Amino acid sequence: MTQPLDDSAFDAYAEATLQHLAERIEAALADADIDRQGPVMTITLEDDRQFVLNKHGPTHQLWLASPISGAGHYAWSGTSWLNTRGGGDLTAQLAQDLTAAVGHAVDLD
Question: Is position 38 within any domain?
Answer without folding.
Answer: yes
